[in-house]
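SAMPLE LOG
Freezer: B-3
Tube label: C17
Construct: single chain, 259 aa
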Amino acid sequence: MEQTEYDRLLAAWKALRGTHNLRIREVACVNAPRTLLVVEVGSEQAHTVALSAGIHGNEPAAPWALLALVRDRLLDDRFAYRIWPCINPTGFAAGLRPNAEGVDINRSFSRGGTTPEARAIITANRDRKFALSIDLHEDFEARGFYAYEPLAANATPRYVQTVIRAMDDAGLSVQELDDPAFDLGPPGTRAVQTIGRGTVVVDAKAEGPFFTGGLPMSLFLLRGSAASALTFETPMTRGWDERIAMHRIAVTTALAQAG
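STRUCTURE (predicted):
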């Protein structure tokens, strides 16, 4: 049988066990014939950062960038990490946004999870707390990098401006977001977003009701598990190496800022 892109990604992660200090296991998706890979890095006594990618199967650079961050030892060793290398293995294998049931996983983190993948993550994360959550994405219409930082009540943005400065310093493209036709979420969400050059800062509580079918993972984690949550978007109109570089710079910059 011909290997899928997910098979190759899975093999690449498992190959790191011999050279990197990783703990790798597979978590069952209840009532679905698939598992999710979860990787643990670092001491269980350290503050933990959650890293994830591949929740949309047609955003291929994000999972490979996450692998590169670990492979090249770029993660800040002050933290431990819980890593979800590819949240949507069936979509990734097929090159499609939704999962095998045709559902957008990133609209299913409500009521204990309404997809097998969301339920698996919510169950595995039970009683876990994260200093930071970072979810890696791509955007087919973007021409530059941009980032979301949803905020809990009375919080101020801590990360996105620093990340955008790092993109500028590296000479990488940053997305202008002032065009109201540019998709930043369900209709109406711009009313509760503060939009800057390459940055979307949002009141998480105010934005939640716009997601009528279920929450994105970042908003869900921010409600009870993560002190801060970021979503990074790279532009699929750019070359592969540039997109990988954007995610590497964005993640390492955010981790440095989290100290």
